[in-house]
Amino acid sequence: MSTSISTAFTKQFEAEVHMAYQRMGSKLRNTVRQLNNVTGSQARFQKVGTGTAVSKSRHAQVPTMDISHSTVDVTLADYYAADYVDRLDELKTNIDERQVLSQSAAAALGRKTDSLIIDVLDAGTNSANIAHGSAALTLAKSLTVYEAFGGADVPDDGGRYFVVSPAGWADLLQLDQFSRAEYIGEAGLPYAGGMTAKRWLSFTWFVHSGLSISSTTRECHAFHKSAVGVANGSEIRTEINYIPEKVSNLITSYMSMGATIIDANGAIKVQITE
């Protein structure tokens, strides 16, 4: 049996990993700002301040807003999802085996993507962060976050997200204002069709099982898409190399990525007790 792997197979496997990653690998990547195809080990996000419109007298010079500009840098790191496949497994002709491996690699890289985002959200220093107070995800906590975002002029443009744990979602289902038709209408019921995401209080609420927990304190997060950034050096790449000492193919998928908070005012950490 030849020890070489066809280029066509490698490209096919790489495409399957990429498609699986985009479909089910990461829940959080599409909820944050993205900077793709970064060259080098660092990326820079631009942060633009707010301006004020003013009037002017006839024939006077137009006054400028003098909007502030700053940057937020993020360092990229390399991450790998690799596994050995025995040469006799006939990977090239076993479609089911190939799909299992591609989905496993995509899921591993997706979990790492979400982990990077969660880590920077956990480290957020917004003064509006809410301590657990030995309480679940209550209506009071939800309204406090809504008020804080409004007070900070965080845009209400469809880009607000609130990610909660499964226990946090269960807490929400016990709130009449979240789950009863007389408050939100039948179309907005959170269990219609088994949905685990819905719009409420200007946020898109959804469930993530990978949020950080310490003892009984879970970290949930409300954030705006523009407040958190993910930079990646390239899309997922895959290499298949034959290792004669193991009589196996080493299949390695990898990516280069980093995450950062761009605007702390647009990210609030909400602790809940589970």
Walkthrough of the structure:
The chain has 274 residues and is an alpha+beta fold. The chain folds into two domains: 7-46 and 69-122 and 231-259, Major capsid protein gp5 fold (2-Layer Sandwich), CATH 3.30.2400; 139-228 and 265-273, no CATH class. It has six helices and 13 strands. The strands form three sheets. Strands 5, 6, 7, 8, 9 and 13 form a six-stranded mixed β-sheet that branches. Strands 1, 4, 10, 11 and 12 form a five-stranded mixed β-sheet that branches. Strands 2-3 form a two-stranded antiparallel sheet. Helix 1 (7-25) crosses helix 2 (95-122). The termini are far apart.
Brief sketch in words of this structure:
The chain is an alpha+beta fold and 274 residues long. The chain contains six helices and 13 strands.
Features:
alpha+beta, 274 residues, 2 domains, Major capsid protein gp5 fold, 6-stranded mixed beta sheet, single chain, 6 helices
Fold blueprint:
Blueprint lengths: L6 H19 L7 E3 L6 E7 L20 E7 L1 E10 L8 H28 L16 H13 L8 E5 L1 H8 L2 H4 L1 H4 L12 E4 L2 E5 L5 E2 L2 E8 L3 E5 L4 E7 L4 E14 L5 E7 L1
Parallel strand pairs: 1-10, 5-7
Antiparallel strand pairs: 2-3, 4-12, 5-9, 6-7, 8-9, 9-13, 10-12, 11-12
Helix pairs in contact: 1-2
